[in-house]
Design a protein that fits this description.
By secondary structure, this protein is an alpha/beta fold. The protein has three helices and three strands, in the order E-H-E-H-E-H. 46% of the residues lie in helices and 19% in strands. A three-stranded parallel beta sheet has the order 2-1-3, sandwiched between helices.
Length: 74
């Protein structure tokens, strides 16, 4: 089953997006901020990542730059 990491500081949006993806057969890993998202990506090696742009601790822009700069997740 494909895995998706979702990062959003809104619990409502995480729940809605997660429910839609799970209904379509994806395994969803939900994160509250960019730091948790980056850690989850390195830990689980998902098939896709959905990032909010504005999040506490680490924005979606910075999180994607961290992921693109590493050879394991580029």
């Amino acid at each position: 089953m494909p895995t998706v990491v979702i990062a959003d500081d809104s619990p409502t949006l995480r729940r809605i997006v997660g429910a839609v993806l799970e209904r379509e057969g994806f395994t969803v890993i939900a994160c509250e901020d960019g730091v948790q998202a980056v850690q989850a990506v390195f830990r689980h090696q998902p098939d896709a990542v959905v990032l909010d742009v504005q999040m506490p601790r680490l924005s979606g822009y910075v999180a994607v730059r961290v992921l693109k700069d590493d050879w394991q997740t580029a």
